[in-house]
Each structure stands twice: as structure tokens, then as C-alpha cells.
């Protein structure tokens, strides 16, 4: 459905429409992925941390590494890690070399959860296949270009 019909609005320019369209689409896709996570008691930020930790295995991560790699840079990574610890999905131990820092690793329970979620996440991603691979490549290029501030060609 066209954006104008979806939100019952018109736009002063194609650039204004583009900005609203990007935000609206992000919200739309975000709501759908949250519906996948909700039955598991996870937020998308918590899932992002679990995926980062799975990628780090067997090496531990620290909060700074998580913040650096997280998609949502405004998330409180320490609080998210504490919630995941309480659920048994991650383990946090004081780093023996730097007492101000903690080593964070994903537990077997956290790995099992990701394994259980993987097919549901893949089904969500497969919804994007209404675009051809060429269209997906082009859209990825355009989105990268927007984030780069037009410095790519």
C-alpha cells in the first residue's frame, strides 16, 4: 500500500515522503519482529546482544564491545545484560585483569534460545523476498549511501 494511503497524508516533496517512508517502514518491520520475540520474553535489543555474544564465542565480550556492535546505540547495554543474566541466557564474571570490567558470555541456554528463534527470524526475513535480489542489492546500496551522507558512489 502506498504511504499516502497508509497514513492518510500528503507530502511537500519526495524527500519529505522518503524520510517518513523510511521511519514508517522501520517501525512496521520492527513491530513484526517484536511479535516474533514477545512469546520468548525477549526484546529486539536483547536478541541483538545474544547474537553478538554467539558470534564472539568462545571469547568473552564486555559492555563496550556490545555497545560498539549493537544496532541500537542508545540502548543501556549493562541493563540488558543484567536482564539476560537473570533469565540465564548470559553469564557475567569480573575480568581478573581489569576489575572494572566484566566478561560476558552466552550460556548454553542462550544458544538454545537462538536456535529456537532462528527459523522464526528466517521466516520474517523471507518476507523481504518480495524484492528481487537485484532490488535488495540496490536498496541496500541506497540505504548505505544515506547513512554515509552521500560519500559513496
What's the arrangement of secondary structure elements?
Layout: H1 3-7, H2 14-37, H3 44-56, H4 63-69, H5 77-86, E1 90-94, E2 102-106, H6 108-126, H7 133-147
Helix pairs in contact: 2-6
Helicity range? 55-70%
What is the structural class? mainly alpha
Remind me, CATH topology of the largest domain?
Answer: Arc Repressor Mutant, subunit A
Number of strands: 2
Q: What is the number of domains? A: 2
- The CATH architecture of the largest domain is Orthogonal Bundle
Total number of helical segments? 7
**Shape, principal axes of CA atoms:** elongated
Low-confidence stretches: none
Q: How much β-strand is present in the residues?
A: 5-15%
Kindly report how far apart the N and C termini lie.
31 Å
The CATH superfamily of the largest domain turns out to be: Winged helix-like DNA-binding domain superfamily/Winged helix DNA-binding domain
User: CATH class of the largest domain, anyone?
Assistant: Mainly Alpha
Order of helices and strands: HHHHHEEHH
Order the strands across the largest sheet as they lie in space: 1-2
